[in-house]
Amino acid sequence: MQPGNQFGEFLRARRELLTPEDVGLPATGRRRIQGLRREEAALVSGISPEDYLRLEQGVEQNPTDDVLDALTRALKLDDDAAASLRDLARPALIERDSRPIAPDEAPEGLAGLIDAWPHQVAWIEGRLTEVLSANPLARALSPRFTPGTNLMRSVFLDPASRELYPQWDRMLVATVARLRTLIGPDIDDPALTQLVGELSVRSGEFRALWGAAELPAEVDSITRITHPQVGALELETERLAIGSPGGSDTRSLVILHARPGSESETALRRLAAIASGTSPAEAQRILPAPVPIESKRRLP
Questions:
Q1: How far apart are CA 20 and CA 32, in angstroms?
Q2: Is 228 exposed, middle or buried (0-12, 13-18, 19+ CB in 10 A)?
Q3: Which residue in 27, 92, 107, 282 is a FRET match for 126, CA 20 to 30 A apart?
Q4: Is 102 inside any structural domain?
């Protein structure tokens, strides 16, 4: 397969999701490979095995619209996946025809403001879920909040995300739903095409969620995190749009904060102390867990 052959990788990933029965072919007993064979994909597409092989290997890089339509039908692609297939087939055309989109940047004043927040986790997020700026407490909470990180790639491709989020499956759904909301109808953005194409190839979970007709609405305002130094955290989540209502600015300010008097508030303060140079043991000593209200009532 040619280096950088995202179109061929996408074809392979999609045929591996199907069985012969899915495309109307008879079952052949026990199989040693996952999904359809190349020859089977070629057969249901109406393409010769040699031509299909050239497409998947990246030798043929200019498939016709008729071929793309045939692949779309044969591989059972929904509208989003079919759009990704066409975009990956014509990267040069996309680059010429798309308006250049300036990279997102964090507003300097707002970035300075959140840096001064000692006990709230905060970061500024771009339209494709890239971290543009993050305050010290966010970076102490997880390396995934380091500026330059794409949160979509992180949650689907970084195994450490499973350790960070005890409700990882729900986080996957919420992340994809949020990306759909952020991009709106602007599906021709080359950066979006590249991101979706990469994740479709590398993550089965992403393929399934991105291709779903509907996703549950994001209603949970609590972010649950397990931190290796301060333990379990339950944090209120606020997501605020940057820019004027109805404008084209799709950046967001994300804030995680703990309820006053809660164990999570103490844990966040402990994490802030550790981030400023205090040892974990000393932070535990000077910031013990709060005594529950019911326990206080029983004290003499």
A1: 13
A2: exposed
A3: 92
A4: no
**Residue 299: inside a domain:** no
What's 118's domain CATH number? 3.30.450.180
- How does the average pLDDT of the chain come out, rounded? 82
Q: Indicate if the pLDDT at residue 186 is higher than 70.
A: no
Which runs of E-coded beta strand occur in the chain? 121-125, 131-134, 222-227, 231-241, 252-257
User: What's the CATH code of the domain at 19?
Assistant: 1.10.260.40
Work out the number of other CB atoms within 10 angstroms of the CB of residue 214.
6
Instruction: Output DSSP code: residue 242.
Output: -
**Structural domain containing residue 84:** 6-97
pLDDT confidence of 289, banded at 50, 70, 90? low
- Phi, psi torsion values for 40, nearest 5 degrees: -70, -40
Q: 170 and 48 in one domain?
A: no
Alpha carbon distance 172, 158 (integer Å): 12
Q: Contact, 267 vs 233, CB < 8 A? A: yes
pLDDT beyond 90 at 153? yes
